[in-house]
Amino acid sequence: MKRYGEHRIPGRLFVVEGIDGSGKSTQLMLLHQWLKAEGYGVVFSEWNSSPLVKDTTKRGKKKQLLTPATFSLIHATDFSDRTERNIIPLLKAGAVVLCDRYIYTAFARDASRGMAPEWIRELYAFAVKPTVAFYFRVPLEIAMKRINDARAGFKFYEAGMDLGLSADPDESFRLFQGRILEEYEKMIPEFGLTVIDATLPIETQQQEMRLMVLAKLTQAKQLRVAP
Amino acid sequence: MKESYGVQLPGLELDDLVGKLIVLEGTDGVGRSTQIRLLKEWLEQQGHAVLDTGLSRSGLVGKSIKRAKVGHTLGRITLSLFYATDFADRLENEIVPALRAGFVVLTDRYIYSLMARSMVRGLDPAWVRNIHRFAPKPDAVFYLRIGVDELIPRAVFARGFDYWESGMDLYSTEDMYDSFRKYQTALLDQFDQLAEEFHFKVIDARPEPREIFEQLKAGIDRILAPPPAKAITVPGEGSGAVEELVVELEESAEERRKRA
Question: Which residues partner with B224 through β-bridges?
């Protein structure tokens, strides 16, 4: 079993992190479009999407069966399935892999639910270290406004309602995501996350991202495929 | 009264657990379930409430594991984590509540089987130990030990070779016999190491089930406190309800005879 930082594979792995409403998914989608147009072999992998584990996670969330421990472990199982069957083989084949959320999401959420931080880090020790991990930093109020504009209300686990912080979903979301923001801030130096100011115009953020990604791709010309 | 192997789960207090946690470990086909059945009956006769439980039976993921295993599509890290999730679910919803209520929890396998399987599949021993560190330390672990030569006839003649018990995911080029032999040998090596590290009480699994049962009973007797004396009803000092019932039954039997 190779540990974080020990994998030597020709592909490139770019991940985006940040709280809901930080705009990270939009930025990753734009990056994806650009890489495709540039002719790179690029594959997109979403958090919580392993076909094997997804049903269990969905059922657990719907019926509110998950505790902090099983929430943590079921997401690690999902991530492991994607890593073993998808991310590692693709990277070995030389692909550019894009992940919307990565292990740092688990570190932030699980620690906010009271799980021991060292335990969670060791749990995910099998993960491939990303080429660049982008962190979209945004103040809580702006993120909440973006979410409220886009859809009605927060989901149960997203608002940390399982923790009983507040009976009001808005207030619970604020408290829970506030904790998550603190966890992200701690991880910036710990994991060398690349901070993007998510309050800047979308185009400016994307420009920054593309420059940084490009710098990592020039050393890997063989990744280019015919468009 | 209990403690974990070093990691405390949020909201899961272990220090107020009054029940006893008794583990039966051993490889596939060694006779664990027979012993669990006998022990449960014996303990209940002694006046202990018993919860018997085992691997991949959780409400959350038990079925998903079985489904995924049918397709043989699980990676080795994923398989380990799936089992750990299942274990955590059973621990929180079944084992800990039962221990809190004062039950004797008899578990058919525990984290040690999970660790042995993962390590045989080449996973990092430190990583494997870490993911199971939230488990409470049992009051006793009885390890039913058998050699691979004694195990093979039991496995083959009793139930045939099973894909996973033969480690076919590891040695898929070999036939089931060679694979079973290799896999179970590696597994037994792991168990022997774990037996030392976690202080298992080793029981020779070759004799007749009755003989093993006697050894287990003796081992468990030492762990359990004697049942409270006042729970025993002395004949003649009862409420009289039983005598009344007997009279009623005799009367109705008499009536039936008359009608016939």
Answer: none
